[in-house]
Structures are given as structure tokens and as C-alpha cells.
Amino acid sequence: MRHTLTTHDGLSLAVTTHGREDAGLTVLLAHCWTADEEDWHYQVRDLLDRYGTDLRVVTWDARGHGRSEESPLEACTVENLARDLGAVIDAHAADGPLVLAGHSIGGMTLMALPEARPDLVHRVRGLLFVSTSSGDLGTVTLGLPDVGPAAKRAIPHVLAWRARHLTRRERRRTPSIERYVVNRLLFGQPLRLRDAGLATDQLICCPPATMEGFYRDLMQHERLAGLAAYDDVPTVVLVGSADRLTPPPHARRLASGIRGARLLVAPGAGHYLPLERSDLVTEHLIAMVDRAQPRP
Model's pTM, two decimal places? Predict the structure, then answer.
């Protein structure tokens, strides 16, 4: 079912829910920067196949993404994403325990939740961090060690320039830049064309402020110290061995911040594990749900 939610600063978010409102457990799936809720479409399908309406599943398009309202540049922050997540939980999660999964900036959103909404932490019964980082993103080389900070900054600026000066139809007709970013920087091997096509179209549909504003904020993202709020919550950190945006050292750093967290590396995979290694992500999500389900 589709819903619309208004954020604390007046933006409209598009939210999708599956399952009963009074389900015993809610799974919330936060997507990647420049993507939308379709980032998780394989996992939503698999969860519904397994649990039907007995599980509440909630996805949403983050501010400035997908069907949600465009966000002003200065409002494109991880802190605001965490506040939005709290509002989504308040409005659409069932009462009771939560399993949270976040891909890339979605994972950073989960890291910021204890700051934004500490009252929700006690309800979290499972955490799945997928291709994400707890900070120090200025050290990322994109797999090109000779590339300096200026060259890295140029990528979101070029994409934003295209979004500002070309229509979506024009960018869809000649998506050479977007396709290069997806194929070269976001995905590993093997590359499934339908998945790369989805990520390319999501990138084409992304507003310029979303690209530039969140990039600026991500360079300030540092939340390792706050991860202790999740100590002893069952946590899995997944990363692809060929992830150029949030490489394995970032996953190890993240896993070290939560007592009891497990780290798994997917050989050959890039940054888009929910698409590239959909079965792996689903496997760990289902294990988390089974463990967190309320017992009679």
C-alpha cells in the first residue's frame, strides 16, 4: 500500500507498506544514495513469499529520491534521513520489535538513528548493514589510488550538471556518463544488465541537489563512536570485495564498533549488494527476522 508522509521540515515522502498493521515484527529497508525503494525489490519479494502478511515490511523513497519531494541542498543530510526514518517508524511500523536494514547511505541513516531518536533503539532486534561506512569517507580512492579529492568531487558535480541542464528524456537517450558510473564504480562481477539498468535509471532520475548536498554531508559523516548504542543487537555487516565506494576496510571498521557484529565479504561484488548478491542479502535478512520474531 502506498502512503505519503510529511517530514519535520515539510517535505513529502513516498512510503510503501506490506503486511498487517498489527504484525508482530516490522522490517524497514533504507536504500542507497541516488537510488529509491526499488533498491530492495528482490528482498521485499522474498520476504513476502516467505512470511506473507504476517510480517510488516516498510520501504520508502528518501528525501530527494524517487517519488519523494525534492530536498533543498542544505537539508540533504544523514541527520535528516535519520529523523525521517523515525517518522516512518512512528507512522507505519507495527507496535513492537524492529529489524532495520540499510544500504550505503541507508546504513548511515541507521547509524544516526540513536542520535536522532534514542527512544527507538530499545525496539531494534536486528541490524543489517549493507555496503556502507561509519565514516572517514575522504580516504576512499574509488579503486583509483592516483585520483585526488578534486577528481572525486567532480563525479557528483558532473552528474548534477547533467541533471540541471538536460531533461530526463535526453539523459535516458544518451546515458553514457551515468552508465559509466554504474558499470565502472558501483557494480562488480558478474554484472546483470537488468540490475545495472535499474541503477542507471535511478541515477538519471536523481535531482542535482540530492547529488551535491548528500555528497557534501557524506564527507562529514563520522559515527563510529555512536555505534555502541547497538551493542549486543544481532548485527551483520555485508560488503563486496570489489566495493569501490565503501570498501572492505570500512566494513571492518563499522563491525568493530558494535559488540558482537559479524562481518561477511562477498567475493567479486561491488557496491550494490541488494541487487548483485540478492540471495545473500535475503539469506541474512531472513535469518534476522526468524531470530527476532516474537514467540508465542
Answer: 0.96
Indicate whether 10 pLDDT > 60: yes
Which of 58, 132, 57 is CA-nearest to residue 102? 132
If you search the block for the grid coordinates 550538471, which residue do you land on? 161
Residue pair 36/103 in contact by the 8 Å Cβ criterion: no
pLDDT tens figures, 253-284: 999 999 999 999 999 999 999 999 999 999 99
- Nearest alpha carbon to residue 101 among 285, 295, 240, 275: 285
Full DSSP string of 100-133: EEEETHHHHHHHHHHHH-GGGGGGEEEEEEES--
Instruction: In whole angstroms, give the CA distance from residue 259 to residue 26.
Output: 23
Select from 78, 63, 87, 62 the least CA-distant residue to 111: 78
Strands 56-61 and 12-18: antiparallel
Q: Which runs of E-coded beta strand occur in the chain? A: 2-6, 12-18, 26-30, 56-61, 98-103, 124-130, 235-240, 262-266
CB 26 within 8 A of CB 58: yes
Note the pLDDT tens digit of each residue in 234-259.
Answer: 999 999 999 999 999 999 999 999 99
